[in-house]
Amino acid sequence: MAKKYLRLAVWIMLIFVIGGIGAVVTERYLFPHLLASDFFSRYKFLRRATENVTIVNRTEQVIVQEDTSINKIASQAATTVVHIISIPQKAVGDRVAATRVSVSGTGALVTSDGMIVTYRTALAENNARYRILLFNGQEYDATLLYSDAFTNLAFLRIGTSNLPAIAFANSDDARPGKKLIAIGNATAEYQNRYAAGLLSAVNKTFNIAGGSVSSSEKLEGIFEIDFTDLVEYRGGPVIDFNGEMIGIVGDVQLDGKTKYFLIPANDVREAMDRTIRGALDTRPMLGVSYISITKAYAAAQSLSRDRGALIYSPSGRTNLAVIANSPAEKAGMRVGDIIMSVDGTEIDLDHALSKLIARHARGETITLHVFRAGTDITLTVTL
Q1: Nearest Cα to 235, choosing from 225, 249, 245?
Q2: Partner of 379 at 20 to 30 A CA spacing, among 131, 238, 259, 316?
Q3: d(CA 109, CA 117)
């Protein structure tokens, strides 16, 4: 008999436990959802059963947002940006005095021992002395090491060390659409300014000579950017969102307007290395004006070659396309010649004539494969 009552008690307890759980589930989950319908909401006993129950519909929104603080992204590169003051000098009797007009520009530290790069138009190059303002408030006199005619970059040095140096990106990897940040410092007091934009195009046929034709002594191939006005950023660095320099801001006058562009970082590095070696004054000279042939240009002009460098003058005169007494003239080059290769390297949009020539030094001898009036010829030129 005792066992019978024990089993009954156990069953009653299980019924209460299961019923309690069912009541909780029904009250907290089933009734609130039933009351959400018009039919069940009419019954008062259901409403009373849920008076102390609150339904919370929680929607969580997770936002993945890039860091939009330009200052934070550029914080490390910003410490390498310098303010360059060019103070023109003039002779007064037996001494030299500063004129009243000074030029302010931006530059960037490229080595920890004080080498600075800028663009030539950000300086007063002739008869000037230079004062550099650093991010930490220190000021130094600077020496102009060299102005590179090929890239239009200028290099200065200040007499100190243990300085931050800007990191170089591999500009060959840059693609249109890349987000960029320009850093300028050309105001009266040291204060960086920032602009954000895009790398809009890699212009492989733009020559910084600024004319309608390219020069074999000027860099061809620049970055075009969609920044609206970069007058306060000339000579300054433009970095990517990794904080690495993608190029230096340069400018040229075209048809009465200023065109801004970037000298790619790899070309800046090459010119810097030449400066360190003291080799900028060994830049070679060929002495021709030319057009880099594209497929579109070849089709429009009915050319039999769709690549190469066409020696060209708008007037058709050889003496305007080939500089007098230049290596090109001495080698017998003419208007209409198409230079197809330099020492076996074919000329195309990735290998411009001016860049292939710039790989050499003055006095070196090179071999040019030339297409002339339907005939392939070989010319030997001493640069």
Answers
A1: 249
A2: 316
A3: 7
Say yes or no: 268 and 208 in one domain: yes
pLDDT classification of 354: cutoffs 50, 70, 90: very high
Bridge-based pairing state of the strands 220-225 and 193-207: antiparallel
**Residue 301 and residue 256 in one domain:** no
**Of 346, 183, 345, 208, which is closest to residue 271 (Cα–Cα)?**
208
d(CA 109, CA 155): 10
What's 136's domain CATH number? 2.40.10.120
Domain limits at 360? 289-382
pLDDT, tens digit (0-9, with 9 covering 90-100), for 64-109:
455 557 778 888 999 999 999 999 887 555 455 555 577 889 999 9
The verdict on pTM exceeding 0.85 is no
Phi, psi of 277 (to 5 degrees): -80, -10
Does residue 280 contact residue 292 with C-beta atoms inside 8 Å?
no
